[in-house]
Amino acid sequence: MSNKLLNKGRPQWVVVTVFLWFAIALWGLSYLLEQRLVWFDSEGQLIEMSDSGDLGRSLKLALKNSGFHVEGSIFHISSQGCRCNWRSAGHIGKVKRQVTEFGGENYSIDVDQVVELKRFVPATPAVIMFNNSSELIYLGPYADGAFCTTNSSFVEELIPLVLMEGEAPAWINAVAKGCYCEV
């Protein structure tokens, strides 16, 4: 009789063990992903600059002085060796295609090649968007989260504004948490 009781208990033990293993594995995975997530603007430099009121004008001047055409343009900012580049590559490609379809202009810039941008871009990958009147529309990351995909995107909805004329409300996105590399 005791053999029957032991056999009945064995499947429950296996189920509990498998459940605990999955729970620990899921916790470990979420812990590792969370360790890789960082704030886009961990030092608060964008918030400080945007409070001064001339962030858009200063950024536009820095880009123009570096030889870029700002009107109706989107600047895709990266840094060589950033571990997050591969995660956002598909999303960046999609944004570039949409910008081209809307008639905007794309520029891909390595932040180490245009050193003046380090003053404005605290982490990469990042995007800077200007409308046809050279008004800053957006400055910040493409998305947030562990994989920075189109599912958590900030920029797709803003692409039609690139062709807009006149003043535009600027969105300085400094509070996103995701896979970013500090500049």
TrEMBL record:
Listed name of the protein: Thioredoxin
Domain DUF6436 as annotated: residue spans: 70-182
A Pfam family assignment: DUF6436
Keywords: Membrane, Transmembrane, Transmembrane helix
UniProt-listed InterPro entries: DUF6436
Transmembrane segments: 12-33
Lineage, top ranks: Bacteria, Pseudomonadati, Pseudomonadota, Gammaproteobacteria, Alteromonadales
Protein's UniProt keywords contain Transmembrane: yes
Top-level taxonomic group: Bacteria
